[in-house]
Amino acid sequence: MTNSEEIFIGYDKYTMDSFEFESGSVLENVDVEYMAKGTPKFDDEGNMTNVILYCHRFNGSYSSLDDIFRLTAKGKPFDFEKYYFISITSLGFPNSCCPSTTDLKHNFPKYTIKDRVNFKRQFLKERFNIENVHGIISRGVGGYEAYTWACDYPDELDFIICSSTAFKTNGYRYVVSKCMESIIESSDDFYSDIYSDSLSRMMVSINKLLYSNYFSKQVFHNMTNDEIDVLMDDFVDDGLFVDIYDFKLRNDAVLEYDVEDKLKNIKAKALIISSKNDMYYSPKFDVMPIEELIENSKIILLEPSADYATYEDYPLIEDELNNFLDNVKNK
């Protein structure tokens, strides 16, 4: 794509002729859901130079780009007049290629975090003729994609910004994911051709387990049992819209995720943001080691009003974000 061609702004879907997984499995007519917003800039050869990819969290989608809307206004760090954002619903998530929308269910190919990265790389090349992005902004499991991208394709991006995430699945997170795997595999109905009521009830149990990690221990301690019940019911109700087959393969990919030994490959500048209160992504084990593992890295630990850092807290660090982005330009 060159600067003489129309640049899409908004929501769209694109279909790739095929996609090959690391396992060798191939799917045809592969849907990709995405959003693109901002102002593209080009070099003399017609290549876009200011593309920032947004990678969403475990229960997110392309629309999660709106999470950073406070930082995209004129004069803000991610001003839409300065950057061109592309947010893609990941492989394995509804409305992009996944078990539920292909109706493959448990027959959908098992995929890895690297498959999710390659899915987005192939889309960017086919749809926008983009082989290099300026940077990646990510949160949660989206950070797994950012780390993997920067490790395996270190020459394809200038920076990563990772919020509330980790470079491997281990310890407490591994236990939680194994518990969810065990709950799913305990059901004979999982391999049925009919989506039974028992599978929906299973998602209730899984969502209650996920809820146990949603707040810090201190927040839970300060709640009454009635308050916990009300919030848990709301959390579980929202999670009932998640398809069990989509969830299973998503969890499988998380279980196998580990790029610790490859972090030394990263050439991109890295900004790692987390909360001092985060229980699921521990500052001690998941954030602070980054200083020794990634050469061009900076860590910011927030003290948010909630138990974990959200984009609502990012206005507190606008100066740090601006300085980081300026250093990327001047590297």
Write out the strand line-up for the largest beta sheet, numbering strands in chain order. Answer: 1-2-4-3-5-6-7-8
CATH superfamily annotation of the largest domain:
Alpha/Beta hydrolase fold, catalytic domain
Could you say which structural class the secondary elements and strand pairing correspond to? alpha/beta
Question: DSSP helix count?
Answer: 11
Output the CATH topology of the largest domain.
Rossmann fold
Gross geometry: globular
Total beta strand runs: 8
Task: Kindly summarize this structure in a few lines.
By secondary structure, this protein is of the alpha/beta class.
Question: What can you tell me about this protein's structure?
Answer:
This protein has 331 residues and is of the alpha/beta class. It folds into two domains: 10-168 and 258-329, 3-Layer(aba) Sandwich (Rossmann fold); 171-254, no CATH class. It contains eleven helices and eight strands. The protein has an eight-stranded mixed β-sheet with strand order 1-2-4-3-5-6-7-8, sandwiched between helices. Helix 2 (113-128) crosses helix 3 (142-152). The two termini are 27 Å apart. The relative contact order is 0.13. Mean pLDDT is 90; it is low at 1-6.
